[in-house]
Amino acid sequence: MRFHIITIFPEMFDSYLKESIVGRAIKNKLISIKFYNPMDFCEPKRRVDDRPYGGGPGMVLRPELFLKAIASAVRKIKSKKIKIILFSPSGKKFDTNYAKKSAKNYTDMVMISGRYEGIDARVQKILHAEQVSIGDYVLTGGEIPAMVLIDSISRQIPGVLGKYESLEEERISTSEVYTRPEILNYTPPGRGKKLKIYRVPKVLLSGNHKKIEEWKKHK
Ligand code: SAM
User: Fold this and answer.
1) pLDDT band at 26 (very low <50, low <70, confident <90, very high)
2) Which parts of the sequence belong to the tRNA methyltransferase TRMD/TRM10-type domain (predicted)?
3) What percent of the chain shows pLDDT beyond 90?
4) Ligand 1 pocket, mutate which of 87, 98, 123, 140 (most atoms under 8 A from CB)
5) How buried is residue 1: exposed, middle or buried, by Cβ count under 10 Å (0-12/13-18/19+)?
6) 114 a known binding residue?
7) What's the whole-number average pLDDT of the chain?
8) What is the pLDDT of residue 164?
9) Which residues is 13 bridged to in the sheet?
């Protein structure tokens, strides 16, 4: 999968994309990520944003610069299995099913991240991009949504997850997980607080896989 990110803040992705599973997937060439910055198309002494028609406090991102950045991404894409997404808090809700379908159906995903009051609406009207939301809250920009999609879609690409990280969506898994030590002694901070003992649930030490699976399902 090739991700093409349209953003005025590409540096925000640096540390996230270097580390762990996503970093390894990039190194192993299972995914690639390219950035296209509308600022690069900005005329000298002009800004990437402008005042909103109709008034209001926030600035609006200029359409021509975004269209140019998107065109420069699309020009590089040879495949027909391409999807263009524009992030918006009022878009279609992203979920695991969306991630699975994306990994299966597309080779290239163009993701457009807004900022401030958003991107001039004509960009969406021209491209008919699908508007996608990662949840019912408003973020300051579309960079975190892009990282969420990159992470979640990459997990669905064969070979991205190692043996130990295998797809949690496909097996019984719980957020209640334990590792060593078997018995944890913990004294809460503060005067007069007593030591408490926390044990790993017995069933997980039993070696009885059927019972362990049942316990996880129940959880
Ligand atoms: N004025 C816009 C509105 O009412 O829909 C919100 C703009 S928001 C402050 C700036 C940018 O952050 C949006 O253009 C979008 O790219 C991104 N964004 C914010 N919340 C998001 C969410 N829940 N899901 C996806 N993108 C989001």
Assistant:
1) very high
2) 1-218
3) 94
4) 87
5) buried
6) yes
7) 95
8) 61
9) none
Q: What is the pLDDT of residues 3-14, one digit of tens each?
A: 999 999 999 999
**Test site for ligand 1: of 61, 70, 139, 149, most ligand atoms within 8 A of the Cβ:** 139
Which residues lie with the beta carbon below 6 Å from any ligand 1 atom? 87-90, 113-115, 117-119, 133-135, 137-142, 145
Q: What is the 119 CA–ligand 1 centroid distance (Å)?
A: 9
Verify that 117 and 201 share a domain, yes or no. Answer: no
Dihedral sign, Cα of residue 35, residue 36, residue 42, residue 44: positive
Instruction: Examine the domain organization and report whether 111 and 137 are in the same domain.
Output: yes
Whether 95 and 17 map to the same domain: the answer is yes
The CATH number of whichever domain residue 95 belongs to comes to 3.40.1280.10
Q: Is 137 annotated as a binding residue?
A: yes
Query: Nearest CA to 122 among 45, 65, 47?
Result: 65
pLDDT in tens, 57-89: 999 999 999 999 999 999 999 999 999 999 999
> Is 110 part of any known ligand binding site?
no
Same domain, 162 and 176: no
Residue 210 belongs to domain spanning: 172-218
